[in-house]
Amino acid sequence: ERQGHPMATTPTTRVTELARTHRLDIDTATYPTVAYQQLMGIEEAKLLEELRTEDDEVYDDTGAMREEVTGYAWRIEAKIAWSTNLAGTAIDAVQAFLRSRFKALRTSSTGNAEFGVRWYNREGLDDGNSHEGRVYVKSWAPSGGKGRETIDIVLQGQGQLTDITNPAGSLVPTVTSIFPATGSTAGSDQVVDIYGQHYRPNGVTDVTAVEFGGTPAVGYTVVSDSHIVAIPPAGLAGTVQVQVTTTAGTSTDTPADDYTYA
Description:
This protein has 262 residues and is mostly beta strands. The protein has 2 domains: 17-163, Elongation Factor Tu (Ef-tu), domain 3 (Beta Barrel), CATH 2.40.30; 174-261, Immunoglobulin-like, CATH 2.60.40.10. The protein has 2 helices and 17 strands. The protein has helices at residues 17-21, 93-107; strands at residues 22-27, 36-38, 42-55, 67-81, 115-121, 131-142, 150-163, 174-179, 182-183, 192-197, 207-212, 215-216, 219-224, 227-231, 238-246, 249-250, 258-261. The chain has a 7-stranded antiparallel β-sheet with strand order 2-1-5-6-7-4-3. Strands 9, 11, 12, 15, 16 and 17 form a 6-stranded mixed β-sheet that branches. A hairpin with a 2-residue loop joins strand 15 (238-246) and strand 16. The longest helix has 15 residues, at 93-107. The relative contact order is 0.14.
């Protein structure tokens, strides 16, 4: 045994348990289109809900404090690893979106910088902590140190925090929006972005078909668990449904998946 050298220590994880168990999705689309995409690189994350109160003390309380609950506030605090592509030439798209929304308010207090978020257990557990709401980026604080760069962010809730069914509770794919939602009857004239969920569960692509009104797309690429780009086939004038099929099933028809041939 060599003397005079300290034993190596086991490094501790940089990721909190809450960041491991819960997922934060960001709606990057322009209202009324919805396009939730997962925020990657989260090392720490917590959802804080606080009751808003005001003093309600009366004479009969003989000096003891009394408060009346008048509402509530909520926010999400997170630390993210600032991420680029492998070449280091572009920032992760969702992180870049958050940065742009913060800058929009920094330069103009009247900017439209609100967007939707979803917070839920990534394993599909119905733990009573699946929520959806609208936020703005209130705080953006780079680490400023050497080596890897992290950003501390605060997403301040705007209005109600709504309870939702855990989107990860079922692995059947969903289609929440498509863009553009119209194209020519010739098909193959544009690329269509399809947004939803469960296209790449657990990091493995599971899509077996993308169809426009029952006709297979000319081609498609699964970009992420929540994003597919597809080339529409030729079709007759009218509205059809865009459906995504995986080994877990086929997305349910909703108005959000309508595509119109014109």
